[in-house]
Structures are given as structure tokens and as C-alpha cells.
Amino acid sequence: MSTVKNVGGISTFFDTPLQFVTYNALNTAIKNEFADFVDVSLYVETADGSQQHLPDYWHFAVENSQSLASQPAAQAFLAEQTPRLDSQRWVIPVNGELMDKILEQQLLDSFSLELRNYGFFNVKLLTEVSSQGSQNDFDSLAQLVEAHEKACSRPSKMLRISQNPSPSPNTQPDEASGPLLVQAPSPKMPKLLS
Description:
The chain has seven helices and seven strands. The chain has helices at residues 20-34, 54-63, 66-69, 72-79, 97-102, 105-114, 134-153; strands at 6-14, 38-46, 84-86, 89-94, 125-129, 160-163, 180-183. The radius of gyration is 23 Å and the shape is globular.
């Protein structure tokens, strides 16, 4: 017997966005309560959308963003930043033109829309490039490579795929046979490339 989990959302309404500690406790309680039969997400709607608690949500929102997931290097870079409020805009400091190009305004706008799930609306995100010349572009490239490597190594492990060599009576000799075995490498596995 197999069980299928439904995906659902619980929408709540508050006058202003919750403090992150409160949101996180409520979100965790809801997920724990319904985890056996539904994958649930908490959506917060607010009357005023005030942004005073946005910095507290920043890292959580970046790490759980679906729009940023398509750009792992940008997501890793943003996870290490903390935007600052400047005239109703949230400014993200960027060292050099290269990282600024990677953080396209369209990507930031998509992420801004996702912030509505936490009760923040009309969030304007902008990048601010420091003007220290090409050295910062080189530093930005190094940060990008480091962020990409960190993003690539974090969620997945390299897998070894092999097939069970036991032959099946209905297969031809050149066909693959047996169940597919997917196995994470053990520390004792020899390196394939030196």
C-alpha cells in the first residue's frame, strides 16, 4: 500500500508581518502537525505589509525561494548578504559589475513577489555596485565560483549507478538486466580521476 501526500497551504491574516521567531515557530508547528498526510506551507497575508522584520526573514526566505533555486550561485550569494533599507528600497551591496549582471532585476523582482508569502508586499530590491574598479569584478567572480561550488556541494552527493549483474531469462545478452542500484560513494571507494 502506498500513501500519497497532498500539497496544501494554510493562509493566515495579520495586521502586520509576524516577527520571524513567531513565524518560524508557527510554521514548524504546522509542518509537524500535518507532516504525516500533507506537505503544507504557511502563507501570511497582512493589512499593511510593513517591512521592519524583513532582515530577520532574509536568509530563510532566500534559502526557501523557488525563483532563486534556478540560479544557485545567485541564491548562495544572496544568502550571505543582508540588504539595507534606503528610501523605501532594499539595497543589496554588490562588489563589481559581474555579480550585478548575475543578479538580474527580473530575478530580484520574482523573489520580491515570493516575499508576499511572509506578509511583505511592495518590496523593491535593488543592487548597489561599489565603484572600486576591475579588482572588484575579479573578486565578484571568485565569490561567484565559491558560491556556486558551495551550492553544488550542499544539496547532493555524487551517486554511483550500477546494475545488478544477475541475468533475467527474458533479456537479450546486450540488454541491461536486473534492478537499478543507486548508491552513495563510500569513503573507501577509489578515486576515478587522479
